[in-house]
TrEMBL record:
Pfam families: ARM_LRRK2, Pkinase. Keywords: ATP-binding, Kinase, Nucleotide-binding, Serine/threonine-protein kinase, Transferase. InterPro entries: ARM-like (IPR011989), ARM-type_fold (IPR016024), ARM_LRRK2 (IPR056597), Armadillo (IPR000225), Kinase-like_dom_sf (IPR011009), Prot_kinase_dom (IPR000719), Ser/Thr_kinase_AS (IPR008271). It comes from Phallusia mammillata. Its EC number is 2.7.11.1. Coiled coil: none annotated. Gene3D superfamilies: Leucine-rich Repeat Variant, Transferase(Phosphotransferase) domain 1. The keyword Transferase applies. This is non-specific serine/threonine protein kinase. It is an enzyme of class 2 (transferase).
Amino acid sequence: MENYKLLQRLGRGAQGSVYLVEHKEDKSMYVLKKVECNDEGEANKAFKEAMALQELRHRYVCGYKEFFVTWDREECAMFVCIVMNYYEMGDLAKVIKTKRLKQEGIDEMILKKWLGQMVEALVFVHNKKVIHRDLKPSNIFMTKNLSISIGDFGVATVMGDARTRTRTTVGSMNWMAPEVMERPYDERSDVWSLGCILLELATCSFMDPVQISSTLFEIKQNPQCLEDILAELAHHKYTAHLCQLIRTMLRRNFQQRPTAVELIAFPYVKECLLLDPNSKLVEKKTIHSAPQDSLPKEGDAQAIFAYMAKNQLNEQAQKQALQHLKKKMDDDKFCISLNEAMKMQLIQVLETHMDCAEIQLNGCKILLRLIENEGGVVDIFYIQNMIKPVLVAMRSHPTSEEFQHTACSLIMALSADENAAECIGQAGGVQDILSVMRQFDSQADICASCCGVLWSLSVNELNAKIVTEEKGLKDVCNAMEAHNSDPVLLEAACSAIWSLSLEDDNVDLLSEVAITLIIESLQKHPRHMKVVKSALMALASIITCGEECAYKVISPNNDVSGLQVIVDTFKLHKKEVDIAESFCTLLLELSEYDDIMDDLKAPSMKLEQLVQSIKTSFQSNEDIVATCVSILSKFGTKVALSPRRPTSARARPRSAAKNKT
């Protein structure tokens, strides 16, 4: 301490006191942070760990001058002192406060500049095996040229709270990742904090400190909160690419969140990094000259891939090759198959040229055609390598309608394999599909494709839980309401609802919204077999959720008899075995509730006679007969018991949805 003159105390917090000091020899200004320790031994341990910060020499990382341990006589305590650079321009917290007072937004180009610098800084420190853990606007300092410098790699970073007398403040927790307080966590926790900072910078024109604090807390529990804010950002002229990046950085499951290094693969982040001519993380893309040799259009797949390998960095060559390959695969006269090496080379092309939407589009179309040609049977190793670049591409090109539609179709094809469906869910594919659905909510064909993917993925129980946690059922219902004249969408939506009805947390929305929408689908498309079949399956499963849901099915509102709609619709398809089976299962589930039997026994419905006729018409189908016998027994009809036990809609195998389509 003898080398420094204390000028003023800048603040006191949970992690110690902060002072503005002047070095007595060179008269330079520094910031000195004093962190109290439990005893001298722990202080020395903390000091040794803090010395690791001296290796953090980077233009976007706050410089550390020195560290030392001192005894404070007045406090009667040991302190570790950290001396760091002083930034007279302040920090991002000051910038945000100033903009809020003026209700001014920050231009996206400025955000991109700062984002690129922060990503570069995090990549650097993470490569040094250092995790910040307490990244927030007040820890990001402004230089005189208005660049940023990440600082305060202090107690939270290298010194444990138990070793030093510190604690995490409630304010700091706003920017902390959900997993930090519980562990395990890794460098992706800093990516969450960076996403929070980016969100706060983008919202400073319309959110005050209380609102943003509440928002940063709520997004850890409620994903819909984040979606609402991102929709507001779009109204304030921020691009879909920025919104998608924030969404990706704020994945609550840290295993689905990209690392700082993985962020570099995003074209938007590359643009941010390239704003700094001295960036070492990306090279400015050059316009390559035309390939020396021409594309072998008359050659086979091996010749085409040899050409692609020879010109692997030439974007134009890859475009031409993929376009030609896709055209040949679309031509029925050609039957092109790719060996494993070619498939892996194709995936490598997608990873190398992630910023080119055309390459991603044609690459995904080729992958989709390969899966179709191979009958949907794909090696799981190949699938695992394919999933990640496809999902990254979906996050990288959020506004490309054709690509997103194609990618959804590819994910749908992949998810037919149970192992692939699980891999997709673990990689964050469920959230990506929901993002596409929200981005293109006015496009019925894309929403239909997304509903189909959600249904297919939700056959996996873990994926169904993810969809539920992300409030995906609400998106499905919104799509049904917006596009109730589209039978393709309604069929897929009803199938998705069937799978999601097995999750208890969806019951309220099923009762309040979904049932009415399904009944309306039957009213609007009574002759569309696929809609009817999916709707009956969904309703049968929903009924098992409880008596309230069952009552809602038979009477969704005062003006409509749901039971009458269901019966009338069935009669239009009474010879169809799948529809008869679903209809009978629905009646069986209704009959489990004694109070509802009065409605089923109403003379005007003539359900007992209808079930008898179904039993007669499908007497060779043991499943239908067993279900009819159980229903008739509830009516008091004397019938011979069936040796087969009817299957409950809720007890059906989750994969039944796939088999029914």
